[in-house]
Amino acid sequence: MKILALDIGTKRVGVAISDALGITAQGHGVIYRETDDYGFNYINALMNEQEIKEIVVGLPLNMNGTHGPKAKEAEAFAGKLKEKFNLPVALWDERMTTVEAERVMISGGASRGKRKRKIDKLAAQLILQSYLDSKKRT
Length: 138
Fold this sequence. Notes:
The chain is α/β, with parallel strands linked by helices and 138 residues long. The chain has one domain: Nucleotidyltransferase, domain 5, CATH 3.30.420.140. The protein is built from four helices and five strands; from the N terminus they run E-E-E-H-E-H-E-H-H. Strands 3-2-1-4-5 form a five-stranded mixed β-sheet, with helices on both faces. Strand 4 (52-59), helix 2 (69-85) and strand 5 (89-93) form a beta-alpha-beta unit. The two termini are 17 Å apart.
């Protein structure tokens, strides 16, 4: 069963997909937010092509665990996904994933331009891998 993960940003949405066994997460790409629809057409096509059975949306909680405006936006987006695609949608704490993605890319020697283009995809991959790892423990 493949799982799709989305890291919602102001300008871009990072995309990652699990393998069919739900063991590993692979970064898939980035959706550029030109409108407020978050790329629903692209997501729909991707879900059909990849046979996605579950969606994970990064939940950007504040460091103290409270829900700020970005978390509320992610919750609303998750609700739209659930309504539009009729699939299970999980919200997953994404605190520090973008910082971790930046750190990984810097340690790998990625240039500033490359980091900007790839950070959202890597953040989505980190969110999804964390989610998959938590499912293995239960």
